User: Fold these one by one.
Assistant:
Number 1:
Amino acid sequence: MRYVKLPKENTYTFLERLKEWGKLHAPVKISEKFYDFREIDDVRKVEFHYTRTIMPPKKFFFKPREKLFEFNIRKAEYRETIEDVEPFVIFGVHACDIFGLKILDTIYLDELPDKYYKVRREKGIIIGISCMPDEYCFCNLRETDFADDGFDLFLHELPDGWLVRVGTPTGHRIVDKNIKLFEEVTTEDICAFREFERKRSEAFKYHEDWSDLRYLLELEMEHPMWDEESEKCLACGICNTTCPTCRCYEVQDIVNLDGETGYRERRWDSCQFRSHGLVAGNHNFRPTKKARFMNRYLCKNAYNEKLGISYCVGCGRCTAFCPAGISFVRNLRVILGLEEKTCPSEITEEIPKRGFAYVQNLRGDGL
Amino acid sequence: MGEKIRIGFYALTSCYGCQLQFAMMDELLQLIPNVEVKCWYMLERDSSEVEPVDIAFIEGSVSTEEEVELVKKIRENAKTVVAVGACATQGGVQSWTDKPLEELWKTVYGDAKVKFQPKKAEPVENYIKVDYKIYGCPPEKRDFLYTLGTLLIGSWPEDIDYPVCLECRLNGNPCVLLEKGEPCLGPITRAGCDARCPAYGIACIGCRGAVGYDVAWFDSLARVFKEKGLTKEEILERMRMFNAHNPKLEEMVKRIFEGVKE
């Protein structure tokens, strides 16, 4: 890997130069407490020490709402509406979010690529940035706190600038075109990088092993946590829509008043919504709030075999942005037996049956 | 398309804002080759409320004995009935109060005599079967286009069963409830407005009504509001504004306050 140093005084010039590579997006403060990635005009508005953006960077590639194709019913024709995407730069992506994009790639690029996602992914330049964890971060437990790839450049903070890791040929070209802005990495810089990384890893709230979590979740379907916590849930779907790896969408056909033409649109969906599990015949394979609540926990903690990690990257958004104050981390730690020692948990049946098929109070009325 | 589709737009007690909203849509011109407007006073002087139609749109709440008869007649004459707007679907803000009719009447009209027999405002579906609903105060043009377009091709429009929160997120708004602690009704209110109010930092008042299918979690949201210091009465009043006829509302909110020392 190639390493260069970007001195602090060159940071804003560098950001200005990035605009030559495409529309620049970076984290800015959008309200009193929230940050989000926005298009950057004035580079001095860029936040280098933001906690987490309310919307994950997936929004640049998997659009919250987009037109897929236009159709004509009379002519029985359709025409895909794939945007002519101009190159764009996303500056300041945290390691967890880079992993989030890598997870989306395993779904939307491998095997059967999603054209709409692919065309944007090819044009997006990713510049990562180092960060210090806050109380909600647990990427260390997900092994997503340090990105090996998935970025063109990655900036690690030094006392007097940035140690830059170059990740792709595009990254090389950006550095080469602006070579006068960069310096060589010194021994002091390496020490500073090592020190930053040491402090960062110490700053996480939890240092523990979660490797058996996905199995414990499946085994603890009868745990009282599920009832207590799903009871609080508003089913607003914010946990899904702020998640960097949630990828479900809903489609709708909109017909114009000529009764002939129209278009198909897709938008982000949430598994906390009733219609997510609704199928033909008005059957619903997740008919209760509890079933939908459990689904997210199981889905997020499932194993992504291509990357060897879970689908949750530990960014903390679903906890930090939950209006009902439900803590994903706490609930997982309850299941792990790390919050309170309640072992064995209550078992109601004579012969304990374990697994999703045996869960109580999950099926709802009328089934 | 063969025969022209006959449509009617009928008004009960309301501000006529719903039909005004749709009457001003340029897209309506596209209807001319395929649709015959049998009744829509705002568009057609020679309207008749008693002719058979394929699709009947009804705005307003049922607020007089005469309107009870009118909606029954519309139902008899229509293949499909669509309730339009907060008044027709939820009874509207005029359903908000639980004071007796006589008291309300006196406050507004005093001793004046009128030609109709008043009733407490109710949603249309309390009297007739409603096949589909277009929500909002006023409703969204997009919903009207989608409904009519879908019905025109002989298909059936989907209902909206997810909350405003989704649209806040699709648009990347900050969360009013979380950040400002304001009693935003977004989590229980039907989406489709593109989260217009929260986009301006204003808490949702629920004008599109609570999400149906028993997925409006009044209880969970009441718990959140309670933690923010709202009383049971304050919560009920806010949630009732556009949901006065929701059978679950009171019971669910009260449950949160049960066994709580006040």
Number 2:
Amino acid sequence: MASYGYGGNILRIDLSDERFKIEKTSASWIKSVIGGRAANTKRLFEELDPSCDPLGPENIIIFGVGPLTGSLLPASAYYTVTAKSPMTGILGDSAAGGQFAAEMKLTGFDQIIITGRAETLTYLLVNNNGVKFVKCEELTGKTIVETTSSIRKVQRDHSIEVAAIGPAGENLVLFATIVSSGNRVNGRTGMGAVMGSKKLKALGVRGLGAVEVAEPIAFLSEVQKMRDAIAAHNEYDKRYRLGTTMLMNDLNSIGILPTNHFQEGVCDYVDDISGERLADEYKVKNKACFNCNLHCSRYYVAGEYEAEGPEFETLCSFSSRLGSDDLPFALEMNTWLNQMGLDSISTSEVIGWIIECQEKGFLSPEELDGLSISWGDVESIRNAVNLLTLREGIGDRLADGATKLSKDFSEEAQKLVMQVKGLDIICGDPRGIKAYGLTYAIASRGGDHLRAEPYFELTNRLEESKRRFGTEKAAMRMEEEGKAALVTYSEKIALLTDSMTMCKNIGLCMDVLNFDNASALLKSGTGVDYSAEKLQKLMGDSVNLQRKLNEKFGVSREDDTLPDRFVCEPLPRGPTKGSTVNIDKMVEEYYRMHDW
Amino acid sequence: MIHVDISKCTGCRSCEAACSFFHTSKVSNRLARMKVMHIYETGIDGPVVCVQCEERYCMDCPVDAMTIGAFGEVIIAPTICNACGSCERKCPIGAIEQLDDLVYVCDLCGGRPKCVDACTEGAIIFTQTSKTPISLSEMKNRTDKMNTSERRRLYVETKGQAVRTSWRGEHG
């Protein structure tokens, strides 16, 4: 039996023969990984045939929560979805907040493990007793909100939380997402395509249980400290007003806001597309994840388009990254991408790559079925997104993502894809944030920052840097020294937040979670005596396991690098002018610290 | 009574989590006496909680297990209640719910409601002034054939209409 905090059960579902099995969560198994993302990785490592087709019935897709998910801990609202990625062919996973995880927790399942493939489009309804398989061909082509509404209405329960795919997932767009709570996105690595390949339209959860902690009074006291730390944080007001969209101005002011597909890091029209403008002109209210006192999400109304969001990545992906100063267009795209189920970063990358290649003459419209796009050409961008959502015409090739599409073209064109291991790079130019550069290179799911989120390098906390990492330079963004140490530390905190679970924006960027308070929370929460050292060791082991899993998928040292642009081409102007990333040196140091 | 201003609600459910935790030491939507609804179609969120209504539909209890306390709160005697479900069915806004033979309804925490403390947005206000109680007769007429969840949703949706009108006025 697993301890307090946990649901205590694992649900296994086989879509091919419509059977399910409930197992007890093994206490010793789960203790070594805490839960959430680390537990999902371990499950995949133990049970997946690494050679399987990611879009075949044998791929395993896992929904996982942790021991503190849905508890009184603020922002304990996260679940992770894990499978072999159809985009990259390696470890794929993506986390999301909102309300889904807290409700999944009440079903008593720490993991829901899904294999096989349904005969026709199906949704699953999970409660504490198991799962109901519901055929739903009438939901073909429906958006996320339409699907969620329909399931709640038919089942006559408006507290069911639904994680669904949109048309993009059904059409196997390789960077399709899963979306829950209407607009909360498991965005990266194409988990929506894996669901689509299984003809699984949605997973609905509605529980009868409760989250019970080992020592309620001690836990309450730890929780209160966390709530206070969030409320008293010096960025609280800014984050409350702008959420992550504050990064539009923040990154621009240091010259690393991706503009025209990373050709520049300074955007002259940033005020037209900033978080501040969004808040002043389109935001109507704050939104929050389960039990969070930051409320950093927002709801906007812009003409006929309204939705929750956008987060910084989507806003930047559909404005400066594509050379557009049109904020209403970015808001339209946020609504569209969320409802169709598309990852904004990868969607932007395939379009941005085409624009740059066409600008440089590497790609002619004729080679792309007449498709011709230029910077800020919102009509053509909208058209391309429509086509790839439906895999219509040239959209069928765009829907495989920039990396795969580029293979049909010249080497110089291929080099312009901003990707690592086949996953498109996020909106932050690593030439001015070196620890992020290292993170993109080594991240176990490909070009991504959330594996370590080394926001600390932007804080200039020199004393703290010296104490933690032995050098002041870890807190200085342009430096490369100390960055391997920073990433090695924060990748474990990132994994811990994803595993216990809580929000990385709060845990990491706001630097609210550390091994000491995590130890106190987990001890009073689960009753298991996790010391701070023990947690470091477990998370370190789990980082090693990710690496071993990726080795099974064929990843090696050469894959841990950055696109040439960031290594060879200095940024042309602004506060990061002239800088490049000496990635090999940092990766070598990182390897040394891991004994790899 | 507890006033909810849903124009300020972010849907965070801190009220619901606190309600459940301080009554049961566990966190669960099922154990909370205040339940937050999220209407993803329209961006409206809001908690549903007993408003100590004028009509007191629930009090028509077949075994007389219900009384009204000093703050106007509904009190259910667990030793008399036979879990027939009558009060749950009669509440037009879905503010009473039975789970495992126990009835969950707001008890105003004896006059110091935890949900009010938990709400950082000022969306939940406790007032002891003897304002005219809210009438739920219109909701009663509209919710006859609905289950508890459907009634909760309709209540929040209805309250949200004015909020949406103001949004559209500003940004539509």
